[in-house]
Design brief:
alpha+beta; 6-stranded mixed sheet; two-stranded antiparallel ribbon; about 50% helix
Length: about 400
């Protein structure tokens, strides 16, 4: 699994499993070899002023980003000098993503009224806008309190308000979130809006924005971690060639990625449902077998249907607890299980149990309770807090 903490997949714009496991494999087999070939063929890493490959642009941006960050931290908040420094970085970011940034005015129509919106860049299907300075994706769309003159200006505040005039009179847009919504509501809206806020790049997709789903990439974290696989993923998702419609027509490559993610999630859900159904049957039948060995026949109970319903419920509950443990082990950042402790891995972990059940059982092993007792102990340790695992 590829860790992607620098990429905030808000609202699961892409399914988490697809982003962490499927997409990295797709890139390794297809796009990365193409990028490597292009990079070897061009020592300068640029062609006609643009990066020779998506990942080359994003990788080479790191030095410029940290230099810009140093300048920004030395400047006084709210001054023209700070705005100019952030704006210059934004132009570098767009170039790194394969765009020939051309700030200017974008003419749009909403509710039969024409509007002019100043933007960093625009082309068919894509618009780029800018806010202030942020390094944290959670803060990149926060405008601060525009009503409080003494309050700090948030990264989500526009450099200059956008004034719209329509049937309801004058409307003033002061933050990037509302400007994105406005652009998506116009006639012939863009498919994507890139929101640049210093150390964070946010991708807004018209089909997902209204549902609260988006992608944000923290350059601060991306370059701090310097994980090549994570940089490849971010470069691919944000690059111009992924967001632009093909010259031959059709949907942008990103639309195909989103669709593939959705289909993958549906497939995983279907497999999970079938696996749970089969597992419930196995667990319930094992309980019935144990009852018969004790001389109890389920069919001779007062209410066999009620017993069957209870078996299904309890078996499903048991399986969900196992699924929770597997998820907790796969997400050590949650701190639910001490997966970094050698004692846990060697004595308690699900991996150890998986290795045990994968081996052929001896003639007397089928009647044992080691697997059940191990899971029961792990369940109790989680319920009580996992300090005992390290003891």
């Amino acid at each position: 699994m590829t860790d992607t903490p620098s990429i905030s997949n808000v609202g699961e714009y892409l399914s988490a499993h697809y982003l962490a496991e499927v997409l990295p494999g797709v890139l390794r087999k297809g796009r990365v070899p193409e990028w490597q070939k292009a990079e070897k063929a061009h020592a300068a890493r640029t062609v006609d002023g643009l990066p020779v490959s998506p990942r080359a642009g994003l990788r080479d941006l790191g030095r410029a980003y940290f230099a810009a960050k140093t300048d920004v931290l030395d400047l006084v908040p709210g001054t023209p000098e700070l705005a100019e420094a952030v704006h210059a970085l934004h132009l570098r970011v767009l170039t790194a993503l394969g765009f020939r940034a051309e700030p200017g005015d974008l003419d749009r129509v909403r509710s039969d009224h024409p509007h002019t919106v100043p933007v960093l860049h625009h082309e068919p299907g894509i618009v780029a806008i800018e806010g202030g300075w942020a390094t944290d994706p959670d803060a990149c769309l926060d405008p601060g309190d525009p009503e409080d003159a003494g309050a700090p200006v948030g990264a989500g505040r526009l450099p200059e308000p956008v004034i719209l005039r329509g049937a309801q009179g004058k409307e003033e847009i002061t933050d990037v979130r509302h400007l994105v919504a406005h652009l998506f509501a116009t006639v012939d809206p863009p498919s994507y809006v890139l929101v640049l806020t210093g150390g964070v790049i946010t991708l807004a997709d018209r089909t997902a924005w209204g549902e609260g789903r988006r992608l944000s990439v923290s350059l601060e974290s991306l370059y701090g971690r310097n994980d090549s696989a994570e940089i490849d993923i971010a470069a691919h998702l944000l690059h111009a060639e992924t967001l632009r419609p093909p010259t031959a027509g059709g949907a942008p490559a990103l639309a195909g990625i989103v669709d593939g993610s959705r289909q993958h999630a549906v497939g995983v859900s279907a497999e999970l449902r079938e696996g749970l159904r089969t597992s419930v049957e196995l667990v319930a039948n094992e309980v019935l077998t144990r009852l018969r060995e004790q001389g109890l026949n389920a069919e001779q109970t007062d209410d066999p249907k009620a017993l069957g319903a209870r078996l299904r419920k309890e078996s499903l509950r048991y399986l969900y607890r196992i699924l929770f443990l597997l998820y907790a082990e796969a997400r050590p950042d949650l701190g639910v299980l001490p997966v970094d402790a050698p004692e846990y891995t060697a004595g308690y972990g699900m991996g150890r149990l998986g290795d045990l059940v994968a081996k052929p059982l001896g003639p007397n092993s089928g009647a044992g309770f080691h697997l059940y007792e191990s899971l029961d102990l792990l369940f109790r340790l989680v319920d009580q807090g996992h300090d005992g695992v390290r003891g």
